[in-house]
């Protein structure tokens, strides 16, 4: 029986495939490389010494996706495939609603047709909107402020309805906090298109000399040093959370929802300091205006995942920075040899 990994060539997907192969799962990856590079597949093989099946398919094309269900004995699906850039989603809402919603509907429809019961969905802490307090528990109120977040919340709502109507389904909604870091090999990592929006890839591009300095978005938040506080989690810890979630689904648990974070909050300046220590590189920065839509503070309570999944994030912030730096310095141009 195999695990279908939609978006398995992407940042979190590729790290999860490595962990799945390590646990001897049969893996089938589907990706259209809209935000990834085919080289990732070779790198996964190099790290794991194992093989997997791959289909270059756009998941919005249900006929092409059905071929994958027909040709493989799939018993669970991990669904990473989505567009994920908040700012871009404001400029291109139709693309975001189309890709993220149609993808997921196609997968859920085919799962029903082919009698596949176990589904892991990549959700996000963005569904908590601007939380009233931290740490954030899974039963906090949900709201969103941008089309990307809206797609995640709509899909969560869809899943809740579908699970109510069909109690044979087992679904894990995983709400990721801020994934950073890379595989220790330095062979796979995060490679955003163009100028990064997220903090860690921006810092690594400054460190490698591709960008001049970091703009710190706001120094007047109600946080210990005035800069935004987030729950950064190592992508390998996150990947391992998916293996534990799959195990949980095998116990016929129905619908479950977990925060995947470390439970610790770090400010932007904490990250700048930790990164400089880990890399030996000074990160020049300037405090500028707040970024519209940002919140002051966001970190998880992870006790539900800790106790019900038997999972806990292990890597600390210095390891996250070391691994991000190894990836970036080994691959200054990312997977492809271009100059920004
Ligand atoms: P990513 O862009 O690196 O990976 C997504 C992969 O899906 C890419 O390889 C892309 O080519 C593929 N894809 C997108 N649309 C597709 C389609 N129509 N058909 C086939 N393949 C398609 O993103 P990531 O950082 O690995 O994120 C994975 C998931 O986790 C996403 O659903 C994202 O919304 C969610 N998430 C990410 C973060 C984060 O900060 N990285 C945080 C919370 C949640
Ligand atoms: C982190 C902190 C910024 C860049 C986003 C999405 C969320 C989830 C994860 C997908 C904030 C500050 C950043 C920079 C800065 N993605 N910052 N200068 O905004 O917490 O979450 O990614 O689901 O949905 O919203 O992450 O890395 O962009 O920002 O000062 O150049 O770093 O203001 O305090 P964020 P981020």
Main features:
7-stranded parallel beta sheet, 340 residues, binds nicotinamide-adenine-dinucleotide, 11 helices, Rossmann fold, alpha/beta, single chain, 3-stranded mixed beta sheet, EC 5.1.3.2
Describe the structure.
The chain has one domain: NAD(P)-binding Rossmann-like Domain (Rossmann fold), CATH 3.40.50.720. The chain contains 11 helices and 14 strands. It has helices at 11-22, 39-48, 62-71, 86-91, 93-113, 147-165, 199-207, 235-249, 268-279, 303-309, 317-330, and strands at residues 2-6, 26-31, 53-56, 74-79, 118-124, 170-176, 178-180, 214-217, 229-230, 232-234, 255-260, 266-267, 285-288, 297-298. The termini are far apart. Bound molecules: nicotinamide-adenine-dinucleotide and UDP-4-deoxy-4-formamido-beta-L-arabinopyranose. Nicotinamide-adenine-dinucleotide binds at residues 7, 9-13, 30-36, 58-60, 80-82, 84, 99, 103, 122, 124, 176, 179.
CATH class assignment: Alpha Beta
Structurally, the number of domains stands at: 1
Bound chemical compounds: nicotinamide-adenine-dinucleotide, UDP-4-deoxy-4-formamido-beta-L-arabinopyranose
Shape descriptor: globular
The main sheet orders its strands as: 3-2-1-4-5-6-11
Task: Please give the radius of gyration in angstroms.
Answer: 19 Å
- Catalogue the unreliable spans: none
**CATH topology descriptor:** Rossmann fold
Number of strands: 14
| Count of helical regions | 11
Secondary-structure-based class equals alpha/beta
Report the helical percentage.
25-40%
CATH architecture: 3-Layer(aba) Sandwich
Pathway: Carbohydrate metabolism; galactose metabolism
Pfam families: GDP_Man_Dehyd
Subunit structure: Homodimer.
Enzyme class: isomerase
């Amino acid at each position: 029986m195999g695990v279908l990994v939609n978006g398995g060539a992407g940042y979190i997907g590729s790290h999860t495939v490595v962990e799945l192969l390590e646990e001897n799962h049969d893996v089938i990856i589907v990706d259209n490389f809209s935000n990834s590079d085919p080289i990732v597949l070779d790198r996964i093989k190099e790290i794991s010494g194992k093989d997997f099946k791959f289909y270059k398919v756009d998941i919005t094309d249900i006929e092409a996706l059905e071929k994958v269900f027909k040709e493989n004995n799939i018993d669970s699906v991990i669904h990473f495939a989505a567009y994920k850039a908040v700012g871009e989603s404001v400029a291109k809402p139709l693309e975001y609603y189309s890709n993220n919603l149609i993808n997921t509907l196609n997968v859920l429809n085919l799962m029903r047709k082919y009698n596949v019961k176990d589904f892991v969905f990549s959700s996000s802490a963005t569904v908590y909107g601007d939380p009233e307090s931290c740490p954030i528990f899974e039963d906090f109120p949900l709201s969103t402020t941008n089309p990307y977040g809206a797609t995640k919340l709509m899909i969560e709502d869809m899943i809740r309805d579908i699970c109510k109507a069909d109690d044979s389904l087992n679904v894990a909604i995983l709400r990721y906090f801020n994934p950073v870091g890379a595989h220790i090999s330095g062979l796979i990592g995060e490679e955003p298109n163009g100028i990064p929006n997220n903090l860690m890839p921006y810092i690594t591009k400054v460190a490698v000399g591709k960008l001049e300095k970091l703009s710190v978005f706001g120094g007047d938040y109600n946080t210990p040093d005035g800069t935004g506080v987030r729950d950064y989690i190592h992508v390998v810890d996150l990947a391992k959370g998916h293996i534990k979630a799959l195990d949980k689904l095998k116990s016929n648990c129905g619908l479950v929802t977990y925060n995947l974070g470390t439970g610790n909050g770090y400010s932007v300046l904490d990250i700048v300091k930790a990164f400089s220590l880990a890399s030996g590189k000074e990160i020049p920065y300037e405090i500028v205006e707040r970024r519209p839509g940002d919140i002051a503070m966001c970190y998880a309570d992870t006790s539900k995942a800790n106790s019900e999944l038997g999972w806990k994030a292990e890597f600390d912030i210095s390891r996250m920075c070391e691994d991000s730096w190894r990836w970036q310095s080994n691959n200054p141009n990312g997977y492809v040899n271009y100059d920004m």
